[in-house]
Amino acid sequence: MMTWRETARLVEARAEGRCEYCGMHQALQGATFHVEHITPSSRGGTSDLDNLAWCCPACNLHKSDRTLAPEPGTGESVPLFHPRRDHWPAHFRWAGYQVVGQTPEGRATVFALDLNHPRRILIRQSEELFGSFPP
Asked: How much is the pTM?
């Protein structure tokens, strides 16, 4: 059985050091990224690798224990983006430094996780200077 530290290293390596929701790289962050339970433990999620994602603190705090969020256009409750099952480019695209949701799940995730907060835009601009944006 793996230790939590070994599990965290695997999750980080699989994500290549990037948040699996917003795409930011940990290298320019002032805080350590988190191992996030995609389906939260409080909702029956396990600590298996298939339920874990590498996540920046902002995405993790905004996501909290949610698996659903309202789609901004309709208000309908839809699943949030699932990094193990969903393919990022199928749900999102880049428009300059902004993440644009292309599906109901993508739009709900952009809104719920506040993926285009002004601070995130500044970080993406900084990442571009270092050659790490877009991901």
From this structure: 0.95
